[in-house]
Write a structure and sequence with these properties.
With 114 residues, this protein is an alpha+beta fold. It is built from three helices and five strands; from the N terminus they run ββαββααβ.
Length: 114
C-alpha cells in the first residue's frame, strides 16, 4: 500500500450498442466492455456506469456476470494479466487511481460480438 486509503473498484462487464455520437470504435455496432467504477456497493458503481455510458454514446443492453472487485492500486497488475496487448491504450497506474479518486468510469477494451 502506498500510504493512501484503498479504493475499491467494481469491474462490471456490459453489452453495449452504439448511439449516434459514440466513443465505440467505428467498426463496431455492438460490443462487450468491462467498466471500472467505484461505489460503496455494486449498485452504486452500476449507477455511475449507466450515467457514463449514456454520456459516451453507448446504450447498455445488459449488465453481465460475473462482477469482480479489485483495489485501484492493483490496476497495473490487472492490465498485465487481462489486457497486456492493450496496455498502451489504457490508463497508467497513476491515471487510473486519479480517475477512481475522482469517481470517474474507466473502460477496458471494446470486444466485438461475433
Amino acid at each position: 500500500m502506498k500510504g493512501t486509503k484503498l479504493i475499491k473498484v467494481f469491474i462490471i462487464p456490459v453489452h453495449v450498442t452504439r448511439l449516434d455520437k459514440s466513443i465505440m470504435p467505428t467498426d463496431l455496432s455492438e460490443a462487450y466492455v468491462s467498466c471500472y467504477a467505484t461505489g460503496a456497493t455494486y449498485v452504486d458503481a452500476a449507477k455511475r456506469i449507466l450515467s457514463r455510458l449514456s454520456d459516451d454514446g453507448l446504450h447498455p443492453q445488459k449488465f453481465l456476470q460475473p462482477v469482480y472487485e479489485m483495489n485501484a492500486e492493483n490496476w497495473a497488475e490487472h492490465v498485465g494479466e487481462k489486457w497486456m496487448q492493450y496496455a498502451s491504450s489504457l490508463p497508467s497506474q497513476i491515471e487510473f487511481e486519479e480517475a477512481m479518486q475522482s469517481d470517474k468510469v474507466v473502460y477496458g477494451p471494446f470486444g466485438s460480438i461475433a
